[in-house]
Write a structure and sequence with these properties.
This protein is of the alpha/beta class and 309 residues long. The chain folds into 3 domains: 105 residues, D-Maltodextrin-Binding Protein, domain 2 (3-Layer(aba) Sandwich); 101 residues, Periplasmic binding protein-like II (D-Maltodextrin-Binding Protein, domain 2); 68 residues, Alpha-Beta Plaits (2-Layer Sandwich), CATH 3.30.70.120. It has 11 helices and 15 strands. A hairpin with a 5-residue loop joins β2 and β3. The longest helix is centred in the last third of the chain and has 19 residues. Bound molecules: adenosine-5'-triphosphate, 1-O-pyrophosphono-5-O-phosphono-alpha-D-ribofuranose and magnesium ion. The site of magnesium ion has 2 residues, from loops. Pathway: Amino-acid biosynthesis; L-histidine biosynthesis; L-histidine from 5-phospho-alpha-D-ribose 1-diphosphate: step 1/9.
């Protein structure tokens, strides 16, 4: 009760309370210096150093809370935003929680294409997205008019979790569920036959945030943290004459920084490079004649405000 009275004027930030997005979401908050203490079992935590309250909710409920303006910012999956069909702004993709929403059928069964599930029973936690997907298949098979007139033939059934068990239990002919490594699908004897959508975690904002300036600051901080995770700083020395060749290898985010060395005709280059490409970039730089190639971790970053002419 006391906590709820303390929410006045605070920016409300919805964060997954458990599950696949929880750890990475907390690490983003930590990187953004959003300090809080979550009391045992309480789903609201006040920040010590900012006028923010964190609201811990199920990932599936976060788009609704933000869409209705009850929370100002939220972290959830793009799949949940699409499923909820609520009006929120997806302000930043966060680079974690990457997976695919896929149509799956028994691996040993005869079905090879999703249209073979038309008229059958499909179990999913994503009934809206699945219905839209199968409606499209039915329109392709029977024409829009027939689907409009007779209604859909494919039956969607909602379950909240452990969707993969549905086929084995005889509740479903096929399912629509998330796949990352494919381990769960394989263990359940299922195979994917098509992809409904690809998804990752996103930062969402209400269309009417209580404190737009603070919301903007938090978005900028989170953007800085994810950019720092995504990039490393690569520095090396190279004869000035070779600059045009290496420019293509390390164009940087905006442009590389070139510094004249004390040694004549030599320059030092530093440029941001996507972490996942760095080994390949170093090979290419070495081949071109770059020397003393160093890779430096970026612990935080800020892109800066757009320059208005
Ligand atoms: N295996 C996965 N790999 C990557 N991201 C995933 C995976 N499963 C789910 N996600 C992402 O995380 C979001 C929340 O799913 P999650 O399973 O964590 O929620 P939950 O079902 O409410 O929690 P729990 O599974 O603990 O009951 C999904 O909407 C999706 O965006
Ligand atoms: O391809 P994989 O790497 O195996 O991941 C996919 C599984 O992860 C999620 O389930 P979760 O573990 O959250 O359990 P749940 O079904 O109870 O939500 C999802 O619903 C799949 O079942
Ligand atoms: Mg889950």
């Amino acid at each position: 009760m006391e906590l709820v009275n303390n929410l006045d004027g605070r920016l409300l930030f919805a964060v997954p309370k458990k599950g696949r997005l929880y750890e990475s979401a907390l690490s983003l908050l930590q990187g953004s210096d959003i300090q809080f203490h979550r009391h045992n079992r309480l789903d609201i935590a006040l920040c010590h150093n900012l006028p923010i309250a964190l609201v811990f909710l199920g990932a599936a409920d976060i788009p609704t809370f933000v869409g209705e303006g009850r929370c100002d910012l939220g972290i959830t999956g793009q799949d949940q935003v699409a499923e909820t069909r609520t009006a929120v702004e997806e302000v930043l993709t966060l680079g974690f929680g990457k997976c695919k929403l896929q149509v799956q059928v028994p691996a040993r069964g005869p079905m090879k294409e999703p249209k073979e599930l038309i008229g059958k029973q499909v179990v999913t936690s994503f009934t809206h997205l699945s219905r839209e997907y199968f409606r499209q298949l039915e329109v392709e098979a029977f024409g829009a008019e027939a689907v409009e007139k007779n209604g859909m033939k494919t039956i969607m059934k909602y379950v909240g979790g452990s969707v993969e068990a549905a086929c084995a239990l005889g509740v479903a002919d096929g399912i629509v569920d998330l796949v990352e490594s494919g381990e769960t699908m394989k263990a359940a004897g299922l195979a994917a036959i098509s992809t409904v959508m690809e998804t990752q975690a996103v930062l969402i904002r209400s269309k009417t945030p209580r404190n737009p300036k603070l919301a903007e600051t938090i978005i900028s901080r989170i953007n800085g943290v994810i950019t720092a995770k995504r990039y490393v700083l690569c520095t090396y020395n190279i004869p000035r004459t070779l600059l045009p060749r290496v420019h293509e290898i390390t164009p940087g985010k905006r442009a590389p920084t070139i510094t004249q060395l004390e040694e004549e005709n030599w320059v030092a280059v530093s440029a941001m490079v996507e972490r996942k490409e760095i080994a390949d970039v170093m090979d290419k730089l070495e081949e071109c004649g770059a020397q003393d190639i160093l890779v430096v971790q970026i612990s935080n970053s800020r892109a800066g405000r757009p320059i208005t002419p």
